[in-house]
Amino acid sequence: MKDILKRPAGMMRKLEKQVVDYFGSEIHKEHELFKELTLLIEMCHTIYHNQEKFTEMYKEICVISDTQNINKVLKEETFNRLYELAIVWHVLLYKEQRMQLLNYYDLSKIMKVIENDKKAKKLYKSLGNFHTEKRRKVITSFLEGVIDKEIGDVSELSYTSEDVETFRRYKIKEGEQGFETNLAPQIRN
Predict the structure, then answer these.
(1) Ranges in the chain, pLDDT < 70
(2) What is this structure's pTM?
(3) Of 102, 133, 188, 189, whose CA is between 20 and 30 Å from 16?
């Protein structure tokens, strides 16, 4: 969790500004890169807004942790809140990663259009930083391992609200199954 808080989400604001400066704030549906640019800007918004949410959730987790050090016993309501925070955290990360992967494949189209324009030099460089094989591998690794294959297949899901809700149900189901197979037997004994 701390690694997520340390990521440079401010770069998303910078990238969004570069895109808007070059292509304008209104990208019309007739634009040849409408879909790609819309996804890129939406991804930037999602990441820097999620960063604020991650910070708030982490602060809440720290408060709960401090309280637990005093109380020594984990109450049901506290456990449920921590569980809900973990689910929300994964859902937000999933949406970001799915958007980044789709964006990864679109970046080459955008870069091809702007590669010879001197006014787009900084934008081209910024997009190049996001269009690396290392980044693609990190994203696909996350998406492949975020849900056990026996729970559900997230490879067919996108970042739409319906698919994100499906992912949330998979994550809850995975938690319930983990409880039944790992913790419930120990509690019964």
Answers:
(1) 183-189
(2) 0.87
(3) 133
